[in-house]
Amino acid sequence: MTNQITTKWLGNMAFESNNPSGNNLIIDVAPENGGEGMGYRPKALMLTALAGCSGLDVASLIKKMKLEVEAFKIETIANLTEEDPKYYDKVLIEYHFSGDNLNEKKLQRAVDLSVEKYCGVMEMFRQFSTLEIKTYFNKQ
């Protein structure tokens, strides 16, 4: 199976990229880098893809396991190298769950399955980054 994305230049430093879902997104850089700041930054999109991929896994497992979760967010904190080409050499991924009736053991299992088995973007990141995973449970 192959994926194909078409990314076309809109002028200046902006691009529009399509998506198999039919939703397009704009890529641009900050004004200090010659852009207008009207779109997503490419490296930040990588972190979004990482969190989104794993988040979808965990959300699916929450549903399958019939777990009660009031709120769930993923914080992704990445270290960018200083030399060109700049890339993320270390990434901390924090899973935050909130709710009155959290099943911590099953939620941790959902995170572990995503991190170790299901998330393809996580596997891609492992090729160039050191990953650190933390899970937080905030019972209310």
TrEMBL record:
It holds the Pfam family OsmC. SUPFAM superfamilies: OsmC-like (SSF82784). InterPro entries: KH_dom-like_a/b (IPR015946), OsmC/Ohr_fam (IPR003718), OsmC/Ohrsf (IPR036102). This is Putative redox protein. It comes from Arenibacter troitsensis.
